[in-house]
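Reviewers of the previous submission asked for a worked example of the structure-prediction workflow described in the proposal, so we include one complete record here. The input consisted solely of the amino acid sequence. No template or homolog information was supplied to the procedure at any stage.
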Amino acid sequence: MDKPREGQSRKRKVRYTIFAISGLAIVLFITVAVNRLEPAAPPVEKETLYIDEVQRGDMERNVRGPGTLVPVDIRVISANTDGRVERIPSLPGVTVTADTVLLEMANPELEQNAMEAMSQLSAAQSDYDTLRAQLEGQLLNQQSAAASAESTAAQAKLQAEADQVLAKDGLIPDLDLKLSRMRSEMSIKQAGIERERLTKTRSANQAQLAAQQARVQQARALYELRQRQLESLKVRAGIPGVLQQLPVEIGQRVTPGTNLARVARPEHLKAELRIPETQAKDVVVGLKASIDTRNGIVPGHVIRVAPSVQEGTVTVDVSLDGPLPKGARPDLSVDGTIELEVLRDVLFVGRPAYGQPESKIEMFKLVEEGQEAVRVPVTLGRSSVSKMELKDGLAPGDKVILSDTSQWDEFDRLSLK
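From that input alone, the workflow returned the following structure tokens.
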């Protein structure tokens, strides 16, 4: 009778257990090894990348922004009085002079007020003329009285002198001499009174005429005001230039302060640039600039920097120092570049598609004679429109990828084809 071989069965179980443990250990080892392997470098077409070489030297810092040409001399014409638009002889786009009538309005009330003011002026002037005639007559009467008193005084004086000679010779009594002298003194005093009265009459006449003249001037000022208001119904350009806007229509009723027209001088233009707020912090008045009109570049300089930010940009006004090219006109779209400074003997490269000034980023540097690119940490410095200062991480002659490489963020190496 056969006996079971218990030893062989136990050995097989031990052997199977060892094989299982060994297999599991091999699988774990392979898994760990695979996880520790770096991902394969993805292939990238070199022609699709923007690559630039690091340089050392002088770097011009500048900022750029879009803008428009706007007139320096602009006149916005508003209504001075109420009125209804009756006629529009000029349309936007025409060349005008200072006296060109842009539109005509009507206001019957102003016409009536002007007529009343003219009547008041005529009445005041008539009163003045009448008063002056009356006062001149009174003055002539007083002058006649004064002259008569002067003549009487002179006659009395001569009589007194003659009586004194006669009295000395004893031809007339002393009483007659005394009476003659008394009459002479009284005549002289009366003449003095008449002269003083004449002087005061002149002064009084001048005061009365001045008061009446003031009334005339007041009436004339009112009349001239009414005339100006009436004349303002004919809206004129005020300056030579081009009529840009005329936002009213025939029959429209306007009130004082309503904008009626806008006139600008197209030969005097400036550029209004919109600089991103992150780049405008270094822009100051006086910096040189260049304006690209798409038909030529005009030099200029900054004359104003807006104190506030609007929609993420800062408005910068640039005065144009050179002649304008053909086709330059108000509201023309332009591009402006403002020169901030020149950095001497610095390390720089083309501006990458990512990264802010004074920050740390990672860039791909070309190695293996340009066949591969590896990720390296880089410290950026000050920026310009197309260049960026480098503070650390690269050396002159290094070539780096400036294109957006965010799609390869999980890779530290690229294979360039």
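The chain has a mean pLDDT of 85. We consider this example representative of the routine output the project will generate in years two and three.
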